Amino acid sequence: xxxxxxxxxxxxxxxxxxxxxxxxxxxxxxxxxxxxxxxxxxxxxxxxxxxxxxxxxxxxxxxxxxxxxxxxxxxxxxxxxxxxxxxxxxxxxxxxxxxxxxxxxxxxxxxxxxxxxxxxxxxxxxxxxxxxxxxxxxxxxxxxxxxxxxxxxxxxxxxxxxxxxxxxxxxxxxxxxxxxxxxxxxxxxxxxxxxxxxxxxxxxxxxxxxxxxxxxxxxxxxxxxxxxxxxxxxxxxxxxxxxxxxxx
Length: 248
Hints:
This protein is mostly helical. The protein is built from ten helices and three strands; from the N terminus they run ββαβααααααααα.
């Protein structure tokens, strides 16, 4: 390749030869124009007219296109990589790291991006599972109830918490409270926690009448007994009942 250079800084006219697919070394004393040649080639390949920045000082006032900076002989060349002082100052010998953007240079690669994308997909699937699973929501709720049962204490569990109350009063499923023997089948049923909640919620209607809100039979002499079921076996206040009836 014969590259013809005209009117670039201090170079009025010159030619350099480059052998393709070989290492070409051009050396000369300082100020001979080596950097100007390299810069002229880079600006020419941009194709945006930026090579005009190399107009020699003596031609700044001229409007004749004949004295405009130009290069020929670079047909088919569309990009140039230059390794010079500016490159060294920009990428190497940085204050905080040897190489600027070392992560992108040494780590980030198509394989890295593919692995990150796969990991993000797995995480997204896990998030979707936790967000859309009723069973996980139930487990989280049970664990929250279990945690709350310890109460607030600097160490161990609080004596005012549901755990202490449950231990102090015993397991209401294994040891049916006195006076509630007639409810044994309900309290020991696999559905005991739901039944206790249903029974406790139903107590709100006993004040409307002396009759049972379900069968309308008289309950005047049994209201206290009915109320005791909720007081003595309340699910949220009995830690051991939670453990006995909740499949975690």
